[in-house]
Amino acid sequence: MSIEFLVATAIGALTAGGIYLCLRARTFPVVLGLAMLSYAINLFLFAMGRLVVGKPPIYAKGVAVYTDPLPQALVLTAIVISFGMTALALVLALRTFLETGTDQVDGTPDPDLLDRENRT
Amino acid sequence: MSALIAAPVLLPAFAATLSLLFRRRRRWIGAGVSIGATALLLAIDLVLLGQAATGEIGIYALGDWPAPFGIVLVLDRLAAMMLVLTAALALAVSIHATLTSLDRRGWHFHPLFQFQLLGLNGAFLTGDLFNLFVFFEVLLIASYGLLLHGQGARRLTAGVQYVIVNLVGSTLFLIALGLLYGVTGTLNMADMAVRASALPIGDQGLFRAGGLLLTAVFALKAALLPLHLWLPRAYSGTAPAVAALFAIMTKVGAYAIIRTGPLIFAGAAGRYMIPAALGTMILGFAGFLAARHLRVMTAFGLIGSTAILLVAVAVFQERAMAAALYYLPHTTLAAAFLFLVTDLLIRWRGTEGDAIVVTPGYRGQQVLAALFFAGGIALAGLPPLSGFIGKLLILQATLSSSWWPAIWAAILITSLVAVIGFARAGSTLFWKSSGDAPPSPGTSGARALPLKEAAPAGFLLALMVLLTVAAGPVTAYMEAASHQIFDVADYARAVLPPASGVGS
């Protein structure tokens, strides 16, 4: 099995999981889905410089094959941004839950919570 | 090569940091720093506009790295026009927010406001696609903060949706960038334009897919048809003054399409964008008619008028683009003006918020009625304001497109719908009155009318009048800007160093 196949499968699985979770009605799975999507993107960007094993990352005279260093720099930037964004989305989701009493993305009242309140 | 080109990015960064220092005590210093910096920014942008008007493309290479390797800031006529528009709008909004004490409802209004400007200016200036992504993120992060400013349950729910939609949008942006980089091996816009024309047949499909995905992300920011759902709730959920600044945010998406469409993708997205924009126009003005709050109404008006702009852009021809460029500042100013008038209505009326219902008379009703009337004329595109000229230019220029009957029908019918919507809302808000006379000045409880709060809105109105009076020079500038946008060879010559050229 080639490394390309493995990486492509990992990106596909992460993207599929991320999209599924993003379509859920509650904020927490959605945030998890966004995190998974950003992992998939990081792998994808990394693979865009082509997968090369055991070669120097910097172009020099006399080197025929080298690893493209730019995607790695892009992935670093993307990791920082997506990490910050996930943290923000999580805090925002928590704050919204505490303030509105529901963690549904569309803001409708939460059926589970209503049931629990009725029972007590 | 002028270092002044970097000033619109650097100045807001310094102003934001400085105003952050004064967020607890002596808050007026923070507000002063913010407003002063915005005024200075407007002055700098006007100087840059003067430079760009000569037709020369200004380049600033960050860290003095030459173009395909380092990031460059590029100043052409289009970028300079967007910078001036942003600074003028920001000046009005920051003064309005300070006069109405909106900036005291939370701690970080002015720093966030300046970071928003930083992101906007950077996005307009950069000549590198990944850098464009970074500036998009900067302006989005700041906009999350501004959107939630003042808080409240409704604003939080709208905020969560806005953040999630934009995070998914950023993800798509990165996928598109990855595809384009994987195919062309560059992220510099000019370099990519040069290499795209020399791609092997096998890679062209991937390149087109990446280009369309990128355009879809920009269409999300510009609220084009299937991707518009986030806008009404986000813009009507936030403070109207913040929404006024956000009027420029949909134009960032439009700007990115205008920049990359002709340059890199040769207008390939046009045939999908025209029907989408026509649908958006109809939907926007249908929502406009159905809205029961002035903020929702203005938000839908913003969607509809941005769609008119995008129809002209999607034709991807020089004359239509010039018409779109003339309409762009007008629609931004008109929507922002209406948001500010909505804020004045909420403050002066005192009851019922911005709901379109009949209330007892109140002081300042006549002033508001006049302002609302002007805003209605502007957004609906009636003479004598600049919207009329913009729509006329767009109608004239789209005649060459095979879609022209649909475009003409959509623009003319939605204009009529807009007039009906404004007439209905205006007569409910200002003509009908539930009988009580407005309190006379001497009686207790009546306070002096804070007329100075209307000054920023008046400033925006004056800009629209200026746009109308100076229509001749402005259209000449826009035609030159449009010519520059389509002159790919000239852009590549200016950005890329002559020696290295295509090869790396």
UniProtKB/TrEMBL annotation, chain A:
Pfam families: Oxidored_q2
Keyword annotations from UniProtKB, A to Z: Cell membrane, Membrane, Transmembrane, Transmembrane helix
Chief place of localization: membrane
UniProt membrane topology term: Multi-pass membrane protein
Keyword tRNA-binding appears in the UniProt entry: no
PANTHER family: ANTIPORTER SUBUNIT MNHC2-RELATED
Name this protein carries in UniProt: Na(+)/H(+) antiporter subunit C1
Species: Sphingomonas dokdonensis
Taxonomy of the source species: Bacteria, Pseudomonadati, Pseudomonadota, Alphaproteobacteria, Sphingomonadales
From TrEMBL, chain B:
Domain annotation NADH:quinone oxidoreductase/Mrp antiporter transmembrane: ranges: 127-411
InterPro entries membership: CPA3_Na-H_Antiporter_D (IPR050586), NADH_UbQ_OxRdtase (IPR003918), ND/Mrp_TM (IPR001750)
Gene Ontology CC: one annotated term: plasma membrane
Keywords from the UniProt entry: Cell membrane, Membrane, Transmembrane, Transmembrane helix
Membrane-traversing stretches: 31-50, 57-75, 81-102, 123-147, 159-184, 205-231, 237-258, 270-290, 296-316, 323-346, 366-390, 402-423, 457-477
GO terms of molecular function: NADH dehydrogenase (ubiquinone) activity
Record Pfam families: Proton_antipo_M (PF00361)
One of the GO BP terms on file: ATP synthesis coupled electron transport
Subcellular location: Cell membrane; Membrane
Predominant location category: membrane
Bilayer topology term: Multi-pass membrane protein
Family: Belongs to the CPA3 antiporters (TC 2.A.63) subunit D family.
NCBIfam families in the record: PRK12666.1 (NF009309)
Protein name: Na(+)/H(+) antiporter subunit D
Lineage: Bacteria, Pseudomonadati, Pseudomonadota, Alphaproteobacteria, Sphingomonadales
